[in-house]
Write a structure and sequence with these properties.
Number of domains: 1
Number of strands: 0
Order of helices and strands: HHHHHHHHHHH
Largest sheet: none
Length: 246
């Protein structure tokens, strides 16, 4: 995708979700607290997968990830984040490594003493996803980056589906979304048009608009994990490479 066609859209994200969280290290606010909660709920699985690849059993990986986010929410760990260069992806995995090396046993003891978790996790879902992932030969850091990229894609698809539903076009999305994974030149537009009940020409336009909107939302989701002014294109390239390794 051409960077020049996306730049105006990216410019709208002067204050990203991650920038808001970084600001909380200096001046906590209801907005920054809500942003941090959203980050924890959205990005717990890549850290769970990281813990599993590091050799943790499913139950231990769940407890470890829960305790990590509990302490992230309660302690002032964000003060250690680089507010100028820090990417959410890099900050979380680095903090997780530190937690696993130095904090895990103490945090587990505190949890048994009555500490409460705050981030809901579906262990059955997590284990099913972890077992089904084809990247079995990847190192823990590579697993994390791959699952991070997949999480961003899922968030993008969720937003796109919600937009279609809000416009009363949920049925159209169910058909058109297949075009997002179709190989170049491999989409049967006539067949898709028949399922949509429209013309082939209109279908081509609809597919083009869907793909364009998907790219816009995906870029927005990535921008939300970066500080303001960061190189979104470089992050997109990194995540594309992470997916290619799987």
């Amino acid at each position: 995708m051409a960077a020049s066609t996306e730049t105006p859209k990216a410019a709208l994200f002067v204050t990203t979700r991650w920038t808001l969280v970084l600001a909380a290290a200096r001046a906590p606010s209801p907005e920054s607290a809500a942003a941090l909660e959203a980050i924890c709920r959205a990005y717990w699985y890549p850290l769970y997968a990281y813990a599993r690849r590091c050799g943790q059993a499913p139950a231990d990986a769940q407890d470890l990830t829960q305790e990590f986010f509990r302490l992230l929410l309660e302690k002032r760990w964000l003060e250690d984040a680089d507010r100028e260069k820090g990417r959410l992806r890099a900050f979380l995995v680095t903090a997780m490594k530190h937690f696993m090396a130095k904090e895990w046993r103490r945090a587990a003891a505190q949890r048994r003493g009555g500490g409460q978790t705050r981030v809901p996790m579906d262990t059955a879902f997590a284990e099913g996803r972890y077992a089904a992932d084809p990247g079995g030969g990847l190192a823990a850091d590579e697993v994390f980056d791959r699952q991070w990229a997949l999480t961003l894609l899922e968030l993008t698809m969720g937003r796109l589906e919600a937009e279609f539903a809000a416009a009363g076009r949920a049925a159209d999305f169910a058909v058109l979304k297949e075009s997002l994974t179709a190989a170049h030149g491999g989409l049967d537009y006539a067949s898709v048009a028949a399922r949509l009940g429209g013309t082939e020409g209109a279908t081509r336009v609809a597919v083009h608009r869907l793909r364009k909107r998907f790219r816009e939302i995906y870029r927005e989701e990535i921008a939300q994990t970066l500080p303001a002014g960061a190189d979104v294109v470089a992050e997109m390239r990194h995540l594309a490479n992470a997916l290619a390794r799987g």
